[in-house]
Amino acid sequence: MDYDLIIIGAGPGGYVAAIRAGQVGLKTALIDKSAVGGMCLNWGCIPTKAWLESAGRLELVKNAATFGVTGIDEEKLGFDWPAAVKRSEGIVKRLTRGIEFLLKKNGVEVIMGAASINADRSVSVENRLLTAKNIIIAAGSRPAALPPAVPADMKVELEELLKLETLPEWIVVWGGGAHAVELAQFFKMAGKTVTLLAEEDALIPQADPFLSGYALKMLKKSKIEVVLSAKIKGFEKGEILVESGAEKMKQIAYDKIINASNRAAVLPASAVELAMENGFIKVNEDLQTSVENIYAVGDVNGMCMFAHAASAQGLHAVNVISGIRSEQPFKIERFPINIYTRPEMAQVGLTESQIKEANLEYKVSEFPLTANSKALIQGETEGLIRMLSDKKYGEVLGVQVIAPHATDMIAEAAILLQLEGTVYDVARTIHAHPTISEIFMEAGYDAFDQPIHK
């Protein structure tokens, strides 16, 4: 037998699993047909967040006079797309080199090529036949294809964005979810006219309805047209014909359509039949597939479409393979949902809808950024915290944050849920002043009707 473990896919689920496997002494091969880091590092999470940061800096400069900064000629301000791409590519290269070093350091063999699982559970790649005790499929996902009516020369996939010399002036983002919202706001901050055509009736279906509704209002406030439950009906003289529920047909001008649609699993060629569910590989609580010794982690199993979820699953699967058992069950609701808009949005734990479905008595405690000193200092007072807690014991069930650096701050809530903390724990935790994080303490006190600054 060649290896203890073969991992197919070198994205956040696969390469993290490979590093962990090396740490626990498993002889491991990591296979990918494209690039170490997968879509997230090379074309998705990292580049798009870098572009958002670039466009966000432009927004800050435009408002610099409010802070007493003078000498800025707004007529000369603009967004340099090639420079933003070059910066993002530099970040990607640095991170990729770091991952390659860690894989080598932990004794992982990296093989570039398309993997195929054979009937005897061996793996073929680049004219090599490999065998292993265990296989982890971490092949990720891709946006589903755009509607057939979209002309081929008007479609832009995410990886193709990097190749554009200039950004189109009239952009339609097709899809929905956190990534589509981020892209829509990026293009708007870069000075483009943007329409977001959402496939479903909720803008961010996986988020709490409050957060999804807030994102919708935020986009509309920044003059981004949003069409929910959108259906593309045709094209006419540079315009898309769009239908939405009972509304009249809309005509939307466009130059290009960016594909940010709901994602579909990328499945490796396999002669082994794996049980599927809604187009994704079905797994149990330990991420095992229907076939013994074959696991599936990350987007490919459809549990959660976030890189950090894939990494956590990769670690869990390797621990299971190694006989390292966790005292706590693997809970998908403990994965934070991050949305890198301005302001940022994040959530972790149960949504209000899930709490209602479970027939739990709960309380919603809130605290706005308008009453937070650090937010006032920064001039970024849009946002709030929402804490959902059990009425009887005060256990925190879910948290939503809309604030600068909410995607960093949500880690406090994630730890709270991991430790089954209560609103009393939150209230007693001393938060430095002045910081945005003080809104956690305020929400904790608000939960038992004793707010300090409200």
3D architecture notes:
The structure is a single chain. The protein is α/β, with parallel strands linked by helices and 454 residues long. Helices cover 32% and strands 25% of the residues. It contains 13 helices and 26 strands. It has helices at residues 12-23, 38-42, 45-62, 81-105, 158-161, 177-189, 209-221, 307-321, 352-357, 373-378, 406-418, 423-428, 438-447; strands at residues 3-8, 28-32, 109-112, 116-117, 123-125, 128-130, 132-137, 141-143, 155-156, 170-175, 193-198, 225-227, 230-236, 239-244, 250-253, 256-260, 263-265, 269-270, 276-277, 280-281, 294-296, 337-339, 344-349, 362-368, 384-390, 396-403. Strand 14 (239-244) and strand 15 (250-253) form a beta hairpin. Helix 1 (12-23) packs parallel to helix 8, helix 3 (45-62) packs across helix 4 (81-105) and helix 3 (45-62) packs parallel to helix 6. It is globular. The termini are far apart. The mean pLDDT is 94.
